Amino acid sequence: MLIKHKEQRVGVFVDVQNLYYSAKNLYQAKVNFGALLQHTVANRKLIRAIAYVIRGPQSDDDNFFAALEHQGFEIKAKDLQVYAGGNKKGDWDVGLVIDAIKMARNLDVVILISGDGDYVPAVEYLQYHGALVEVAAFGETCSTKLKEAADDFMDISKLNKKFLIK
């Protein structure tokens, strides 16, 4: 277990799509991002909390984004890309990583809220440059390599009553 002290400067980077679909597929529920933010920051100095979201065609997005902002998140949004043939793509992996790397010199701890194994090289890079990297994700859908790479891993599934809205 990682020692967390109140003087640590923390940045939180949330891959909203990753958590949204894990919660929906595993529990038919939604994530309480505000409770998750408060728990992961753990009374340390929050410098920035950024939620990376994809704007879909539904208008419910605006209410969801407003709720995230109200809970203390800065929103970074991009539109869902729909290709000829119907394929859809929407992810923030590169943008999230670039932001984390740019901000890391002003942070002691980078909290990545995602289970996507594509983040492993970024975790290793951030650690090499002195940041502690904590990961919070659903254990069942989180990459094993990401869990192993993190300095600390929080399994949201083990605290699902605290972080899920049915």
Commentary on this structure:
By secondary structure, the protein is an alpha/beta fold. It has one domain (9-48, 89-165): Rossmann fold (3-Layer(aba) Sandwich). Helix content is 37%, strand content 28%. The strands form three sheets. The chain has a six-stranded parallel beta sheet with strand order 4-3-1-7-8-9, with helices on both faces. Strands 2-10 form a two-stranded antiparallel ribbon. Strands 5-6 form a two-stranded antiparallel ribbon. The longest helix has 12 residues, at 16-27. The two termini are 30 Å apart.
Give the topology, please.
Layout: E1 9-15, H1 16-27, E2 30-31, H2 33-41, E3 45-55, H3 60-70, E4 74-79, E5 81-82, E6 88-89, H4 93-103, E7 109-113, H5 120-128, E8 132-137, H6 144-149, E9 152-155, H7 160-163, E10 164-165
Parallel strand pairs: 1-3, 1-7, 3-4, 7-8, 8-9
Antiparallel strand pairs: 2-10, 5-6
State the CATH superfamily name: 5'-nuclease
Number of domains: 1
* CATH hierarchy, class: Alpha Beta
Please give the largest β-sheet: 6 strands, parallel
Helix content: 25-40%
| Rg (CA only) | 15 Å
Q: What string gives the helices and strands in order?
A: EHEHEHEEEHEHEHEHE
Which architecture per CATH?
3-Layer(aba) Sandwich
| N-C termini distance | 30 Å
The percentage of residues in β strands lies in 25-35%
What's the pLDDT, averaged over the residues?
92
Strand order of the largest sheet: 4-3-1-7-8-9
Count of DSSP E strands? 10
The CATH topology annotation reads as Rossmann fold
- Give unreliable regions as ranges: none
